[in-house]
Design brief:
Elements (H helix, E strand, L loop, with lengths): L2 H15 L19 E6 L3 H11 L4 E7 L3 H17 L8 E3 L2 H5 L6 E4 L6 H10 L3 E4 L7 H13 L4 E3 L7 H11 L6 E7 L20 H5 L32 H5 L1 H11 L9 E3 L11 E3 L5 E4 L7 E6 L3 E4 L4 E4 L21 H11 L7 H20 L3 E4 L4 E2 L2 H5 L15
Parallel strand pairs: 1-2, 1-4, 2-3, 4-5, 5-6, 7-10
Antiparallel strand pairs: 7-11, 8-9, 8-14, 9-10, 11-12, 12-13, 14-15
């Protein structure tokens, strides 16, 4: 669909779904307009509600706009946002709806955007947002391919934007405590690390069905190779299941990127590899294997993708002990380590206990937040390389400085073709 048609549809959507909440004037500590960070949301599926609720609790945030290609989800999200801002007694202005995200980016009064689309849209929207001068919060995994992630970093740096990756486990006690214990050698030299997340990405085999009239399916597919609609990829508003575009190539990266972007991120953090990465990937040689891959760093530490007994969790095994961590627990052997208070001489990691406020503070200071775009890119590169190794069933060497494999086929898989006029490299 041509851009001028999207503009026309965007205007119609904006008129149809604009909600003007009550206007609160003065008093009660409301921020002046010059002190606010005006926010727009791009992609308003299930995850966007968590982001909207968390960000609106930051006093500096004013939510002014939202965009989606699903009219029903867009209307519901705008209504929920207006309700939340009223509950929080925040000064409010109208929340406008947009069909095409570039119309939202054209607004000069929008300071920052939240990108919560399916993964195949992240790079194009983030690059366009950086070009438009917006600060960015982008859900994890950062990018669908390694090349996309590098472009997102480069565009962010070129336009001097503040970019937070939504790897929010870095802002929680369990994972920071585990990472600092490992980093400071409390369990001795690390021998190996076990990470239990689900299976790699696979080809989409869902049957094509007629798209509903409330959904612009061609725009939903966007830069990816076209395939027909299926509600598993984009569930209707009333379906509370997580959309499973995550599992299929061209849209997501399976559980390797969905949960791996959380867990492998903590591995990178604990090993001090935020600016680097592994040097070798060794997948199992059996066809259709869903686990058993290992990768290693230059210092000899090996990480295994295995189900070690607890789902979506990490097991650090050192010469002097063991630390296990998930969102629900942190435990150790010896037992006293798990909640040990570190000393003043220990190395400390970036402290954040609120991923959203950390981004807001970084915007105000023009500094890097706890999960800067480079960090997000390095983690998603690990995840994407794992998927490549599983698919090729080949041992691969990886150069984290050059971001290149020692295999021509693997290097081709660092990027993907874009459909139509879309091009994430134009910045």
């Amino acid at each position: 669909m041509k851009r001028r048609e999207f503009i026309a549809k965007g205007i119609v959507s904006s008129l149809a779904f604009t909600i003007v909440p009550r206007v609160v004037l003065g008093g009660n500590g409301f921020l002046a307009p010059s002190d606010r960070i005006n926010l727009g949301f791009i992609g308003v599926g299930k995850q966007s509600y968590t982001l909207m609720n968390g960000l609106n609790r930051c006093k500096e945030i004013a939510s002014l706009a939202a965009c989606d290609v699903d009219r029903n989800k867009l209307a519901a999200f705008i209504a929920a946002t207006a309700k939340k801002q009223t509950e929080l007694s925040k000064a409010q202005t109208e929340i406008k709806a947009y069909h095409h995200y570039r119309e939202l980016l054209d607004r000069k009064d929008i300071d920052a955007v939240v990108i919560a689309t399916p993964d195949h849209w992240h790079a194009q929207i983030a690059v366009d947002a950086a070009k438009a001068g917006k600060d960015i919060y982008c859900e994890k995994p950062l990018a669908l391919t390694i090349a996309e992630g590098r472009a997102m970093v480069d565009a962010t740096r070129k336009y001097k934007r503040v970019f937070q990756t939504g790897s929010m486990q870095r802002s929680s006690y369990n994972f920071r405590q585990a990472a600092e214990l490992v980093l400071n050698g409390y369990i001795g030299k690390i021998k190996e690390i076990n990470v239990s997340v689900g299976e790699p990405v696979k080809q989409c085999d869902l049957p094509a069905m007629p798209a509903p009239d409330y959904l612009d399916w061609d725009m939903w597919v966007g830069p990816s190779p076209y395939r027909g609609y299926n509600p598993i990829l984009s569930p209707p508003l009333e379906d509370d299941n997580w959309a499973w575009w995550r599992g299929y190539r061209d849209f997501g990266g399976g559980y390797i990127t969905d949960w791996g972007a959380h867990m492998f991120d903590i591995v990178q953090w604990a090993l001090g590899m935020d600016e680097s990465g592994p040097v070798q990937f060794n997948p199992p040689k059996e066809a259709n294997s869903n686990s058993g891959l290992s990768f290693s760093y230059a210092n000899g530490v090996r990480v295994n993708h295995v189900q070690w007994g607890v789902h979506n969790a990490i097991q650090f095994i050192g010469e002097k002990g063991k630390i296990e961590v998930s969102r629900e627990f942190i435990r150790s052997n010896p037992e006293n380590l798990a909640n040990l208070k570190l000393t003043s001489s220990d190395r400390r990691l970036y402290y954040s206990d609120n991923h959203y406020q950390d981004w807001v503070d970084a915007i105000k200071k023009r500094s890097k937040p706890i999960c800067d775009v480079e960090i997000g890119h390095r983690t998603s590169s690990v995840c994407n390389a794992i998927n490549i190794a599983y698919e090729l069933q080949k041992d691969l060497k990886w150069n984290p400085q050059k971001e290149q494999f020692d295999n021509d086929y693997a290097n081709l898989m660092r990027s993907r073709p874009y459909r139509g006029e879309w091009d994430f490299r134009k910045f």
